[in-house]
Amino acid sequence: MSGSKYSKYLVQEPRITHMAHHDHENVSGYTWPQRVYMSKDIIPGCPFFIDIGWIYDMPHPNPALGEHVHSTDEVLLQIGSDYKNPTDLGGVMEFGLGGETLTMNKTGAIYIPGGVKHGPFICKRVDRPRIHVSITLGGYD
Known about the structure:
By secondary structure, this protein is mainly beta. 0% of the residues lie in helices and 50% in strands. The protein has strands spanning 15-17, 28-30, 34-38, 48-60, 74-80, 88-97, 100-106, 108-112, 118-126, 130-137.
């Protein structure tokens, strides 16, 4: 496989990084620092930036992520871990978007337009681990 034409596009070892806009140095309940599985730094020419982590317990402190803004569009996915009921998030979270509070209790995605303030990210309940995925075009600023 290592000699195949497209093997360079397979990423199975993430780049572990601390992002300036996410200060999670002393947060428990999350897999931090962030694990980046796709970026132009990992695969030259790739237009996507994707980081994946787990929320496995009630974070401390909570909220673990405050309000911030990026110039790039972002999609944030929260994915429940019950394969028999994949729409069940396994908890409840509140997410600030443009000054409004959105509540998630089902697997779902949030589109965050570039330039719109978002956060805080508040876990109200964590019944079982869930997957947190963030996707942008080009990366964060």
